[in-house]
Amino acid sequence: MPMKLLRVFSLLLGMVLGFAACSDDKEAPLLPLYPYENVELTITEEGFTSTSCSFDIKSSDEQAPYLCLYVKQDIFTEIPKEKLADFLMNDLKKQAQDKGVDFESFVASATLKGSQKLELKNLAPGNVYELVAFAVSGVKPAKKSTYHFFQTRYVDPVDCTIEALSVTKENGNIVLDMKPSVDNEYWYIAAMSKPSYENALNSFSKEDIFMTLFGQQANGMTLEEITEKLLIKGPRKIGFRISAGIGDCVWMAAVLKPFEETNLVLASQVSTGEFNPDKLPDSSKSAHFYEHVASKITRFCNGYLPVVGIARP
Fold this sequence. Notes:
Low-confidence stretches: 1-33
Number of strands: 17
Number of domains: 2
Oligomer: single chain
Radius of gyration: 34 Å
Largest sheet: 6 strands, mixed
Strand content: 25-35%
Distance between the termini: 99 Å
């Protein structure tokens, strides 16, 4: 090999080796495309009311920062799940701009770490929400998110039980002397034959049966009419006109509360009891007595309780 060509080759080889050695010394590790991609977040619902909900959140990495955000049903039904985290981050960016705060600082102020107990407040009654939690690196969300759906109550529950102090027969009509454990809530009562009740339990819960009976009687009434004609407040004697020979019967009573000014929803446990009109001795009372008892319209069901509802315009 000519000397000149050998010198050029040696020089080139030295440059390649030199670059290779330099590269080995200064090579930087590759950063993951999505930060904290292996962080697992677990959401456990602890309790809820008509306007609040409480959660426990646990993280598999105690040092990984994460966000926990929530949206109403109309949002998460419109946004594809794979785009929801970006949608949420974009909205946080708008919130930061509105407050005149740097986006990174705004996100940092909202991040959490480790296990947390959270309570969401000022929620809308009877609404469905989606809770979304994901790790973040600065303002970059992790690819994987954890989702949890929850719904607030329509109304807050009332701790109330209702009992029948006595069941009598007056002028051929059944009179139940009812007493609720609280006096300041409206309640409703209905009754049905025991065989019909037991048959309905094959398809319905006790609460379903109660609300079905109420719905059948309240159909077509305004809230004012329902309150005046069907609902009761405090202790009251209630009368039922029941045909002879009906046999064992079941009464059902519970508190109902208004929701959004047009609807009534179940707000307490459903209290029940049994009676048999055919085994009660009849006694005569004045017409004025039963007129007071019957001032509320009662519902007695002895027929089939439908499983299938009909949607009507």
